[in-house]
Amino acid sequence: MMGTSVGAANAVVSKEPKLQIQKFNGLRSSGSVPLSRCVRVIPVSSSKSSLITAVSTPIKPDASSKEAKRSKVEIIKEQSNFLRYPLNEELLSEAPNINEAATQLIKFHGSYQQYNRDERGVKSYQFMLRTKNPCGKVPNKLYLVMDDLADQFGIGTLRLTTRQTFQLHGILKKDLKTVMSTIIRNMGSTLGACGDLNRNVLAPAAPFARKDYLFAQETAENIAALLTPQSGFYYDMWVDGEKMMSAEPPEVVKARNDNSHGTNFPDSPEPIYGTQFLPRKFKIAVTVPTDNSIDILTNDIGIVVVTDADGKPQGFNIYVGGGMGRTHRLETTFPRLGEPLGYVPKEDILYAVKAIVVTQRENGRRDDRKYSRMKYLISSWGIEKFRSVVEQYYGKKFEPFRELPEWQFKSYLGWHEQGDGGLFCGLHVDNGRIKGNMKKTLREVIEKYNLDVRITPNQNIVLCNIHPDWRDSITAALDQAGFLDPRYVDPLNLTAMACPALPLCPLAITEAERGIPDILKRVRAVFNKVGLKDNESVVIRATGCPNGCARPYMAELGLVGDGPNSYQVWLGGTPNQTSLAKCFMDKVKVHDLEKVLEPLFYNWKHKRQAEESFGNFTIRMGFEKLKEIIEKWEGPAEKHQLNST
């Protein structure tokens, strides 16, 4: 049963000193739940705009109580009139950049301010835009528009992200409104792709015509709709208030408006989020049993469809508390796996998700953003207390977690039958960067055959709804453009991931996307040197900083930037992404990687048990023994090295 293994995996976390997380009492309106506070909506007269401020007050005034400490971002959110001011004014200025407050607010609109760190002198400010595509679904029209925008306003490339979205890099401030409005008017959105709210909701990208897959994808889309901001700030800013929202399913509207358990802000433009939104970003994924193409345990909420013997969906298992980000040399920050919360019948999933989100909204830390993710709340409280509080907002007890089969990583590369007469084709894209001839040919194929596409959580792309008669001509076009049949892609590349890092990400300490192609070639060379076969592989993920955007802490070999041309080496994840890696070594210079990897891979080849993965091997051997092996290593030819261990 997965619940057991995940609990064991989190045992490491439980040994950390318990954080004393200060409860943030103060965002929810009055209701029947004991933890409630009241909210007063106060119009503030201003020549700039009418500010609406949420003010929290204790139920019983306490003269000795002091206002809870809040981070600078919390103040910016509160004073922004639902994420409008001062961004609206900053966008009108002639300057190429925006101020600090606007920089924080534009994240909620789906954008980050950046500059090219390779250039010296005056900063060349530009903006990255990230779309929001639940399940990774991209309609034909939107793909073609994104392709055009990359050439007209960006750096000429499209990037597929680890959360099934696009990123456009290099957008100038003066072009932001044009690009944003074009995306919105062509079936796209960037709303909530960044910022302190629910991010893109993941689901398997495979377009199978199966009840469970279709239900998982529908559920992901409904959750995304439920947790989409409602106050209209996004449309006010980018399309002059014109609403582009499509009709929502009635069950989504009903769940959002339901306040029978004190979850909502009555009469607020943001019934779920209020003026403060969430303490930090929030990530949700939905999948079916066995399909771990989405890294289910890395999300704040992981949801698994449970079916009956005929494959008909009955309900959902729910995991909570996953998250990757951490801070170097601060042991009170850590990556964490989600753990089982319970099971709910299918008709209750939106209410259960809303209850979890509100629990985090009310109790997640707002004073120190390093500790604001829900994983720290659960690590502090323990799962039993967390479940009890969520149940107050849910209005019911969770049922016991249902037993699940073993998880498997699925890439969906190559050709597959959808089950409805059509085919789909998964294409491997190194680091998710679509550029050059590949970009040109991909556009031609998508346009010619009117194909919809999907983005995978492994930064690849799936062409959907292909008529069998088109297969040969599409294959020929893709081959000519350099898209390899997955059988001919190095297995190391098939599972590798990297974040963009340098030159644009302001948080990057070292290279990731630009560095990993060479690192993978060097790893393959080490494999050849120690006698590992060409079809053997390990899951390698690299990030330029400890935030973990490419989920390196789930890799068998994770490389986490910790200095110029330097990485922390993490070992011990598994090929199916169900175990947390651990930090093995600090400050390994990129040119010294072979000194670490060669003895590890040599010993894996010669001392592994039957079918034992590299990650499991490193955990079984133990880090002290592995470090001893590295210290004594004199090369593969020195057989006595191996025998002496």
UniProtKB/TrEMBL annotation:
GO molecular function: 4 iron, 4 sulfur cluster binding; DNA binding; heme binding; metal ion binding; sulfite reductase (ferredoxin) activity
Predominant cellular place of this UniProt entry's protein: plastid
Cofactor(s) named in the record: siroheme; [4Fe-4S] cluster
EC number: 1.8.7.1
SUPFAM superfamilies (alphabetical): Nitrite and sulphite reductase 4Fe-4S domain-like, Nitrite/Sulfite reductase N-terminal domain-like
Classification via Pfam families: NIR_SIR (PF01077), NIR_SIR_ferr (PF03460)
Keywords: 4Fe-4S, Chloroplast, DNA-binding, Heme, Iron, Iron-sulfur, Metal-binding, Oxidoreductase, Plastid, Thioether bond, Transit peptide
PROSITE patterns: NIR_SIR
Domain Nitrite/Sulfite reductase ferredoxin-like, first and last residues per copy: 125-181, 416-480
Taxonomic superkingdom: Eukaryota
Residue ranges constituting the Nitrite/sulphite reductase 4Fe-4S domain according to the UniProt record: 222-398
InterPro entries the record matches: NiRdtase/SiRdtase_haem-b_fer, Nit/Sulf_reduc_fer-like_dom_sf, NO2/SO3_Rdtase_4Fe4S_dom, NO2/SO3_Rdtase_4Fe4S_prot, NO2/SO3_Rdtase_4Fe4S_sf, NO2/SO3_Rdtase_FeS/sirohaem_BS, SiR_ferredoxin-dep
Catalysis performed (reactions): hydrogen sulfide + 6 oxidized [2Fe-2S]-[ferredoxin] + 3 H2O = sulfite + 6 reduced [2Fe-2S]-[ferredoxin] + 7 H(+)
Family: Belongs to the nitrite and sulfite reductase 4Fe-4S domain family.
Function in brief: DNA-binding protein that binds to both double-stranded and single-stranded DNA without significant sequence specificity to reversibly repress the transcriptional activity of chloroplast nucleoids by promoting DNA compaction and possibly regulate DNA replication.
Subunit text: Monomer. Interacts with ferredoxin.
Name of the protein in question: assimilatory sulfite reductase (ferredoxin)
